[in-house]
Amino acid sequence: MNLRDRILSLREEIQSSIGGITSAEMLEEFRLKHLVRKGTLQAMVEALRDVPVEEKPLAGKELNSLKAFAEGEYKRLKETFDNQGTAEELLDTTLPGRNAESGHLHIITQTMDEITRIFAALGFTVEEGPEIEDDYHNFEALNFPPDHPARDMQDTFHINDPVGKYLLRTHTSPVQVRVMERQKPPIRIIAPGRVYRNEAISARSYCIFHQIEGLVVDEGVTFSELQGTLLSFAKQFYGAKSVVRFRPSFFPFTEPSAEMDVTCYICGGKGCRICKGTGWLEILGCGMVHPKVLSNLNIDPEKYTGYAFGIGIERTAMLKYGIDDIRILYENDLRVLKQF
Ligand code: 2NM
Q1: Which one has a higher pLDDT value, 217 or 20?
Q2: Which CATH number does 107-337 carry?
Q3: Cis ω on the peptide bond leading into residue 256 (within 30° of 0)?
Q4: Residue whose CA is closest, atom 16 of ligand 1?
Q5: Centre of ligand 1 from the C-alpha of residue 25, in Å
Q6: Which of 110, 135, 211, 241 is most buried, with most CB under 10 Å away?
Q7: DSSP characters for 126-137?
Q8: Quick one: how far is CA 21 from the chain centroid?
Q9: Gap between the Cα atoms of 215 and 189, Å rounded
C-alpha cells in the first residue's frame, strides 16, 4: 500500500472513531493514539521522507489536511467535555463556602423588644390593637376635649371615610382604652406599636414612629409605685447607676402628669454633647390615670387608681446609639442598618 492509500485509510479510521467518542476518557485515548509524538500521524510524517519525490506533494497535502482535521476535531470535543463535566468534576467540595449574608432585626424592633422584655419581667403583659382607630378610642375616651389641637386635621391623619370618624392612631393609648373596656382591674399591660402624626418631617420628627405605653390599674395604686417601677426600668435599660427625676407636665389623660429624666448614661451626669450639658436625658411621659378616663370606661375612680406612661422608641434608640437624624431609621440604607 502506498503512503497516500495509508493516509486515506487512517482518515477513515480517525473519522469513524471521532463519531464514537462520548467521554473525556475516550477523547484522551484518541489523543494518545493519533496526536502525540509517537502517534499515527507523526508516523506518517516520518514515512513521507521515504516516498518517491513525485508522490510527495500530493501525499503531503493529504497528510496536512488529515492532521488539521484530527486536531480540529480534538479541540472541538475537548471544549465540549470541559464545559459539561459531570457534577462531581465541577463541584470542588474543598473550596471554602460562600458567605451567605443574613439579615437582622431593625434597630427600632431591637429597642422595642429590649424594653418589652424589661416590663414583661416586671409582670406586664403585652397588648396590641388596630392602627386605624376611631375618634372615640384615640381621643374622646382619653379626655381630649373636642377642640384639642391634636384633633385638628393639621396634626392627625384622618381616613377619608363616609362617617369621618376614622383616623391613624396618634399614640398607642387606644390599646389601653380597649383593654379597660373588656377587662376588669387588676390591669398591668404594655402596648408597643406604630403610631402616626401629621408633622413636618425633620431631623427630630417623622410622620411615623413607635411607642411603648404602659398602664396599671388596681386598688391602691400610687404615684410612688409608678416611680419605683420606672426607676427599675431606667436602671435596667440605661445602667444600674442611673438616677431619675420627675418634672411636672400635662397630658389630658393623666393627673398629675410628669416627665421622667434619667442621668445621662454617656457622661454619668457631668454634662456632655448627648445631654446638651445638662447631665439629664428626658426619656418618658407619665402620670396617674385621670379619674374621668377611668369613669369613661366604667371603672370606679373611688375604688381604683392607676398610672400610665409612654416611651418614644425612636428617641430612645437615637440616644442609645448616638443617631442624630430620625430619617435615617426609615431610609432602609443597608450601610446604616448594618451598623446596628
Ligand atoms: C403618655 C404619658 C402619660 C397614657 C395614658 C393612658 C391611658 F390610656 F391610661 F389613659 N395610656 N397612655 C400616657 C400617660 C401616655 O405618653 C407620653
Answers
A1: 217
A2: 3.30.930.10
A3: yes
A4: 310
A5: 80
A6: 211
A7: E----SEEEHHH
A8: 53
A9: 5
Distance, in Å, from the CA atom of 35 to the CA atom of 18, rounded to the nearest integer, reads 13
What is the full DSSP assignment across 2-56? -HHHHHHHHHHHHHHHHHT--SHHHHHHHIIIIISTTSHHHHHHHHHTTS-GGGH
**Element (H or E) spanning 273, and its range?**
none
Spacing, Cα 231 to ligand 1 middle (Å)? 17
Q: How many angstroms separate the CA atoms of 214 and 304, rounded?
A: 17
- Which of 133, 173, 259, 284 has the most ligand 1 atoms within 8 A of CB, as the residue to mutate? 173
Which residue is closest in CA terms to ligand 1's atom 4?
308
Ligand 1 neighbours, Cβ below 6 Å, are 142, 173, 176-177, 213, 215, 251, 253-254, 285-287, 289, 293, 308-310
Distance 173 CA to ligand 1 centre (A): 6
pLDDT tens digit string along 54-68? 888 888 898 899 999
Written as nine digits, the cell of 233 is: 426600668
Query: pLDDT tens, 76-112?
Result: 888 888 877 655 566 778 888 888 888 999 999 999 9
**Where in the chain are the domains?**
3-90, 107-337
Q: Whose CA is nearest to atom 1 of ligand 1?
A: 310
Max Cα distance, the chain (Å): 131
